[in-house]
Structures are given as structure tokens and as C-alpha cells.
Amino acid sequence: MATIKFKDVSQYKQQQIPREDHGYNKYVQHIGMQQKSENCVVGIALFGVGRAGVIHLISLLNNPRVKLVYIVEEDKSKWDSLRSYWNLTETKFISSMDANQVYNDKSVRAVVISSPTHTHEAIVTNALEHNKAVFCEKPIAENLEKSRRCFDKAKQVGQPLLAAFNRRFDAAYSSVRDRVRNGEVGHVNTIKVCSRDSPLPTTEYLKASGT
């Protein structure tokens, strides 16, 4: 009969949400309006509004727990357009020459770095030295030793330093890893996954991206 395929328990009753599913956990928090003990707005400074920076800008503006205090952008010709398009009437635009304003501003709790690769290490170090959390596009610095120094600095000052290797925290990717380690899928020689940014980066971008 055609209905035989429905003989099993509904998949909706079988469904189990992994505890690591950050997106679902946030949904539960928001739908129930569950407030944590500290539910304050976090002041953020964004360095660079280019290819990756626009992605981070959208995420920051969509987060009700964030106040975008500064945008640090070298191309001043973008400032008015960014301010108008995103309605950034309370965000201060500065160039990197004035970045000390960010570091010395105690209302800025964290910085997001999406500026050119060669600028990352200095921004990371300065932000950490001024007791600010850091999220930085990869790479953190231009070589392994410099990157290690950045993470050593983060440990020294007791602030988080996060690199944009987000796939390792994706619940689907973690599930694949765990199932392989648990022997659920037999002997595995190779696993190939693919993730591509959109839009396709320009040649000029790739020359300086450090990837």
C-alpha cells in the first residue's frame, strides 16, 4: 500500500537537537526571551568594510546585543554611503591613523578585524593590550610565529582571540567528525567537504588575502 512508508514513528518525534547547535539554542533563548545574568549591550569597533567586512557589518547590525561604536575604514569615499545606506547615525567613522580612539575608548568591549591581512597583527595586539576581545579574519598574522605571539598575548591579558575558522564549530561538521570517530561509518580514508565564499574574490583580493 502507498501508506506503508509512513508506518514508522514520525521523524518529528525522533528529531533530537544537538546541544552544540548554537543557532537552535539561540532560537530557544529568543522565543522564550530568556535573559542571562548579564544582558548588556556590547560596544564593537569594526576594522575594514571590504569583502569580508560587509558580511560582518550585516551580522553586527542584526544583533540587538551589539552597538557599533566605530568603523575604521581607510577609504573615506565610502563613509557617507555606508552611513546613509546602513543608517549608521550613531557610528563614528575614522581611519587607521586615529585607531587609538578605539583602543582608548572603554565603551568598546571588542573589535572585529576584516582589514587587509598585513594589518591584522598590529590591530590584534593593540586591541588586546587595551583589554578588548578580538575576532579576526584569517590569518591572525602573516606567519605562524607571529600568530602564536598574538595568542600568547591574549592569554596574558585574559581576553578571547577568535579566528574566523567557523566551520569547525558547525554542528553538521562536528557530527560527521564524531560519527567517524565512533566508527559508525566504517573505515574512512578521506573526507572531502567544500565551502566557497560568494561572490568570487577578485585576483587583486587574493594577492593580498594571505589565504
Low-confidence spans: pLDDT under 50, at least 5 residues?
none
Radius of gyration: 21 Å
What amount of the residues lies in strands? Answer: 5-15%
CATH architecture of the domain at 39-168: 3-Layer(aba) Sandwich
Can you describe this structure?
- Residues 43-161 form the Gfo/Idh/MocA-like oxidoreductase N-terminal domain.
- One of its GO terms (cellular component) is cytoplasm.
- There is one protein chain.
- The radius of gyration is 21 Å and the shape is globular.
- It has a six-stranded parallel beta sheet with strand order 3-2-1-4-5-6, with helices on both faces.
- It contains nine helices and six strands, in the order H-H-E-H-E-H-E-H-E-H-E-H-E-H-H.
- With 211 residues, the protein is an alpha/beta fold.
- 37% of the residues lie in helices and 13% in strands.
- Strand 1 (42-47), helix 3 and strand 2 form a beta-alpha-beta unit.
- The longest helix is centred in the last third of the chain and has 14 residues, at 144-157.
Q: What brief labels describe this structure?
A:
single chain; 211 residues; alpha/beta; Rossmann fold; 6-stranded parallel β-sheet; 9 helices; 37% helix; globular
Topology of this structure?
Blueprint: H1 11-14, H2 22-31, E1 42-47, H3 51-61, E2 66-72, H4 79-85, E3 92-94, H5 100-104, E4 110-113, H6 120-129, E5 133-136, H7 144-157, E6 161-163, H8 171-181, H9 203-209
Parallel strand pairs: 1-2, 1-4, 2-3, 4-5, 5-6
